[in-house]
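User: For a reading group we're discussing how well predicted structures match intuition. Take TfoX/Sxy family protein. Before you show the prediction, I'll give you the sequence so everyone sees exactly what went in.
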Amino acid sequence: MPRSTASPPPSEFLAWCQELLSVAGTVRSRRMFGGHGLYVDGLFVAILMRDQLYLKADALSQGRYEDAGCPRFTYASARGTGQLGFYQAPAEALDDPQAMRPWARLALDSALRARASSPPAARRRRRADPPSTPDAR
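Assistant: Thanks. Here is the predicted 3D structure of TfoX/Sxy family protein, as structure tokens, for the group to look at:
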């Protein structure tokens, strides 16, 4: 019997988070680090890890998350505890898409600012083929 190459169905919580964030645009997910990265219109805006939704933040938006009492995304590493620029979504924002709208927009704006401040990717140079040498006979 051939093995199926289809990925397993997304969890209900993943599907719900995609629906919540759809108020900001087209949502896609990718597996990452044992969780999922969520992208709105191609921009990385959220991490879904251990059934928690974390939204992207930057220097301009992190105060809003902190004022709402949202914990920052942390992870264990060989050097101790690390942090990323993502904060847990407020509980009330998980209730319905309209409650998520301002938070999704905040995360999307952070992602847009991050993209605008990054330098363009360096173009890859094609390596020239080595010069051909005539066969020595």
